[in-house]
Amino acid sequence: MISYHPVCAQGGVPWPPSCPAEGAAPLVPVLVVLAVACAWLAIRDMGRRPQSGAEGLLGEVGEARTPVTPRGGTVFAAGTHWSALSDRDIAAGQRVRIVGVRGLTLKVEAED
After folding, report:
1. Tens digit of pLDDT for each residue in 44-90?
2. How many domains in the chain?
3. Are residue 57 and residue 35 in the same domain, yes or no?
4. What does the H/E/C string look like for 38-103?
5. Domain of 74?
6. Dist CA 74 CA 70 (whole Å)
7. pTM (2 decimals)?
8. Is residue 91 a part of any domain in this protein?
């Protein structure tokens, strides 16, 4: 036996699902606003540079904690100590810029 919703019974429409629930209409603008906000946030974040991983380290500035040479050294960048290599000798305490990442070793250059 098919039951009829009192509001829809006049037209002989069975309940559910043919008759829309009362009060659902005000939800449509709210859902549209939420969808637009989510799309705006997603598009905005697409233009930002990565915050983590190797890509997030590129361009960061740090400090040489030990002398950094082509054979190795240690730098402090992004809140932690890293093994580092450089094409030129860099003195301890000098500011460095990260120009490459291979595994857990950074390639750095002296910051001018």
Report:
1. 888 776 666 778 889 999 999 999 999 999 999 989 999 999 999 99
2. 2
3. no
4. HHHHHHHHHCCCCCCHHHHHCCCEEEECCCEECCECEEEECCEEEEEECCCCECCCCEEEEEEEEC
5. 53-110
6. 12
7. 0.56
8. yes
